[in-house]
């Protein structure tokens, strides 16, 4: 398959950005990535957008055409594609763009991810997030998104002896990393006590176990690897991708403490890249709740099943630990504008592999991984990146 | 680029299907296509879904994972992708699936399109359709979807002398075709007077100038052409695809009477297929309003600019006319479950090229075209199909 490289990245700050619209955010991220790639608008063959729920958050569908229009590209009449897959949409969009280049149809594609979540009330936002779970068999009976993840956490505690302190260690680590990221929503360290004493959302998950609602956008420029050197001396190769689905409703799944979609997406990505988890120095994983990161590092085989909590508490996933997980701060501290997530993870990994990650730089990062979830794990996508030789 | 063929098609009836859910419809169409292709579930590498607004129509996002789950495929953990692009989403999904096969990542992909529109009130449905236009600069000021198309019709009348009778001729023709299609929403012929005397929706478009709100689903099975003969003696090749975008808002465009996105998508598709409009015997075009079909047949160069109305009234686009346009009945009579549209058009073309179209069969159909719009024309997709030799 024709190889694909990332030649440019860009993103907005993440946060409650009251003064900026979906359009503003999408354009800012896209233009930053285009400038970073040093391409001209004439070089762009297509635009892909990951977005979860613009229809419900800002009453606007068809954001694919919108983003190209507002980026000043309308008179180029580019193919524009919006992909949705719950929280995984940005990572799915990245994969579709990769395949489109690999097919030979396009050479250079801009992939953006964006979400504007704070134009609706918090309760409405929670309802919108829940619409990526099974509306007819979960949400309708009152199971919130946090409630479904709380069940996974409770079962993990039961089966493996995971403690609330282990969950909290994820939040503490990611806030520490976020404090080093000038684009993060929360740039402030927190203590274990802060997490443990935070108001309960869905037992055992407190407020500091949950990622925030956010506005933000991110973008990358993908290019056929055989053309990438024309634009940059530091291309980052997309070496492997895996995507997998699972039963939409949590109660239909084989196991509450393993996300099969993550396991299989990971295997597919590592297999294509011909690599193992030990070959990866840095990973951005989907920590929409603290339990999610523990499941992710286990299901991606960075740590043994059931040991994710102690591994985190012991610092194995801290910055420059055995594997640096969520150096950006993750969804927890960097923020969670849902459509942007998968693309923002790729932005962070590319910066790490280029050595451009500033105070949160992972020493000697040569290969990095992104892991993104849709819904409560009915979609998972893993991408593996490598610094060009 | 690796060639791709359609090896199976299926669809539900279209209509106000009160007793069937989105899930029921999606599964029925998908299973029919899989049976038609004579593949086993183990043969499927991925599932792509075109859907416009399940989030707003049935409060369910993440329908990619849902459809695979409810089709009994969850334990295969397939990659599932939902694509949205207003009314063009099914055609965009078809293109993404084609590129994914062309890349070499997959060999066999099921592409579905579905929409369940009648679970909300008609006014809410109109609001949802309008959310594919420019929400901030059109809808918010009261411009309905029908109103925006009405402006195009009025300007076409002014510039080219098109009359209401010409618009009405589109509806009469498509209802006549629909009367020959057992899966159409309206299987009843209508007269010119019925259209002209129908209640005005947005001058000059009366009720019978507008396609209905519908429930329904359609699916096709795509296969790498080099493997297609294992499954069928009658593969239909996807010879060319073109997709183009335009300014989201109608007022920003160069011309009200030409859809540049259609012109350019058509050129790209014909160029790739190395064909001309005269090589096509049958076309399914996006007639969400009668004016849309007139613009489409002009912009695709089946007739001279400005002559679409008289050409239709003169029968050039009637069944077995110069080019048979919308033999299925089109969106107007077959129905318009938005997400299903682009895929249903492909289903009809494949049936025509196989000689399986029953009473509405176009004699000697060897090549066929689909044309699908998103929003008011900010997205257009054209696919060209050819009967395998």
How many angstroms separate the termini of chain A?
Answer: 19 Å
CATH architecture annotation name of the largest domain in chain A: 3-Layer(aba) Sandwich
Q: Estimate the strand proportion of chain A.
A: 15-25%
Instruction: Tell me the radius of gyration of chain A.
Output: 19 Å
Order of helical and strand elements of chain A: EHEHHEHEHHHHEEEHEHEHHEHHEE
Count of individual beta strands of chain A: 12
Low-confidence stretches of chain A: none
> What oligomeric state do these chains adopt?
homodimer
**CATH superfamily membership of the largest domain in chain A:** Thiolase/Chalcone synthase
Supply the number of helical segments of chain A: 14
CATH overall fold name of the largest domain in chain A: Peroxisomal Thiolase, Chain A, domain 1
What composes the largest sheet of chain A? 10 strands, mixed
Using CB atoms under 8 Å apart, which protein chain pair has the greatest interface?
A-B, 61 and 62 residues
What CATH first level of the largest domain in chain A would be assigned? Answer: Alpha Beta
- Compute the number of structural domains of chain A: 2
Helix content of chain A: 25-40%
* Envelope shape of chain A: globular
